[in-house]
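INFO  loader      accepted 1 record
INFO  loader      residues=232
INFO  predictor   begin
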Amino acid sequence: MKRKKIAVLSGAGISAESGIKTFRDAGGLWEGHDVMEVASPRGWMKNTNLVLDFYNQRRRQLKDVKPNLAHHEIQKLEQSYDVVVITQNVDDLHERAGSSNVIHLHGELRKVRSVNNESLITYTEEDVILGDLASDGHQLRPHIVWFGEMVPMLDKAADEVSDSDIVIIVGTSMQVYPAAGLVSYASQNSELFYVDPKPHISYELKLRSNLRILERTATQGIPDIVKSLLSR
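INFO  predictor   done
INFO  writer      dumping tokens
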């Protein structure tokens, strides 16, 4: 018998419980920087060293944080389900918790790529500085999807959601597009779970009769969902 499929849509809230600061705080800053300074092609052209240093610091931080209970519980679902994690996060905490199928919509901190060829990607845990070149001789840049850039994994993510029997939304405001639009691809027959201490119920979600909302943090809400799904 074919196993049911679960798509987990995760955002900054799940990483925050591991000590990773969210992409934007209430002041529109990321670690004290205007997001457009460090997350846009314009910012890269204006001050390449600043952008490289910013992501070097974020990459270093990954060595000091660990997956939390929610990450590990999501991995447990693979015992009984076909699971795909579609995350807006650029950390690798889902992978380190053991999840085997993870799609990163916004890129990955531990990857860099050529400024001239976005498919020329290299894994690194070390700092990248001006003058560090890809194999094609061009400068390396963070493998991050910046504002104004295409989201190359979006179509694949949409296909995965449309093919899922269960969709779990966790740690995301559901207000940042295009990622927030992914839930619209879920089948009308699929079950939806939404875990967030302050859930934003979009028009799309209001139309869903099979939506269960848990107004809790990721580490509080995910274990209950996993326990319920694994007991079926």
